[in-house]
Amino acid sequence: MNELVETASSLGVSFEASPYGRWVRMEDSHGRFVYVIRKPWDGPYVVYCDSLRQQLPQDYGDPESAIQAGLRYLA
Fold first, then answer.
1. C-alpha–C-alpha distance, residues 67 and 69, integer Å
2. Mean pLDDT, to the nearest integer, of 48-74?
3. d(Cα 29, Cα 10) in Å, to the nearest integer?
4. Number of other residues whose CB lies within 10 A of the CB of residue 46
5. Percentages helix, strand, coil for the chain, rounded to the nearest 5?
6. CA distance 30 to 51
7. I want to staple 59 with a disulfide (CB 3.0 to 4.6 A). Which of 30, 34, 44, 48 is the partner?
8. Do 45 and 34 meet the contact criterion of CB atoms below 8 Å apart?
9. What are the two backbone dihedrals, phi and then psi, of residue 60, each rounded to the nearest 5 degrees?
10. Rounded to an integer, what is the distance from CA 48 to the centroid of its chain?
11. Band of the pLDDT at 49, cuts 50, 70, 90?
12. Which of 29, 28, 27, 47 is nearest to 37 (CA)?
């Protein structure tokens, strides 16, 4: 596992991950979902919201803060 997948697991959230752990996808009970993605070459993390088809307007330096932002959007 990598840092993004390990962090999502340690936070106890329900998610699915890409085969190489480049992204995690979280979904709420209404079918809305977000992706937390690590940019290439050890870049920051970003959050994409499918219902908005856009990126939340911030880069996140660590996976936990990106996952928390995604969870806030789904709340």
1. 5
2. 85
3. 21
4. 20
5. 30, 30, 45
6. 11
7. 44
8. no
9. -120, 135
10. 8
11. confident
12. 47
